[in-house]
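User: Let's play a game. I give you a shape written as tokens, and you guess the letters that built it. Ready? Here's round one.
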């Protein structure tokens, strides 16, 4: 009698557990898709504006400068949406990387990247160096509070990208995935070198910053898709 009553309960419990597992897998795949989309979305929308915004010169103006002027809302929205996607997607990375080298730090860094992008979008740069059209040439003598906030948010985001890249290199090295380990370290180094070049006053600094950022976003998107296939 006792055995007969226990069997249905066990089956029901197993059924609930299986349903929960399926729900968790679906949620994880969706979260990882957020990470995969965030970077390419931001890069794609930025490039579209570079090609169409009058007066914008990528060798002189950083992509963040697109958030100024009458059409600046496009880049602000781009920053915010991509940042929200990255922030949400960090939870998916935490699930699939749990218990591995970098399994705690990398998702946290991706979350910081997302939050930093939202902040960088809302805290815009000042018009400068001829953009938007009609702005005097050169850098303004004084900066607004939100321009300083943008610089801080950008710095935190870029440092987090570099750290995430090197930690992903360690992560995949421990897992025996040599190709992804190398790719992760190369991406982080490209970002580090590009930012260092720009900060040192190197020619076409905005291009090297944008290149490093694009490479790191590509890496994070690939890692998210890599793990999405295993869920």
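Assistant: Ready! My guess for every position:
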């Amino acid at each position: 009698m006792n055995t007969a009553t226990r069997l249905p309960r066990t089956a029901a419990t197993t059924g609930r557990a299986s349903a929960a597992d399926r729900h968790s897998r679906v949620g994880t795949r969706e979260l990882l898709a957020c990470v995969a989309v965030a970077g390419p979305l931001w890069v794609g929308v930025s490039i579209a504006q570079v090609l169409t915004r009058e007066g914008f010169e990528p060798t002189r103006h950083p992509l963040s400068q697109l958030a100024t002027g009458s059409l600046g809302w496009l880049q602000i929205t781009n920053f915010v949406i991509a940042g929200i996607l990255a922030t949400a997607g960090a939870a998916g990375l935490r699930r699939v990387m749990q218990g591995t080298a970098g399994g705690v730090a990398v998702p946290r860094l991706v979350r910081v990247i997302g939050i930093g992008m939202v902040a960088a979008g809302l805290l815009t740069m000042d018009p400068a160096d001829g953009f938007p059209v009609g702005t005097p040439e050169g850098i303004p003598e004084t900066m607004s509070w939100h321009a300083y906030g943008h610089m801080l948010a950008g710095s935190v985001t870029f440092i987090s990208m570099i750290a995430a890249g090197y930690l992903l290199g360690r992560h995949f090295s421990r897992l025996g995935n040599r190709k992804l380990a190398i790719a992760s370290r190369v991406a982080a180094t490209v970002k580090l070198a590009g930012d260092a070049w720009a900060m040192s006053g190197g020619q076409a600094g905005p291009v090297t910053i944008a290149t490093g950022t694009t490479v790191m976003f590509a890496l994070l998107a690939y890692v998210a898709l890599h793990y999405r296939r295993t869920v």
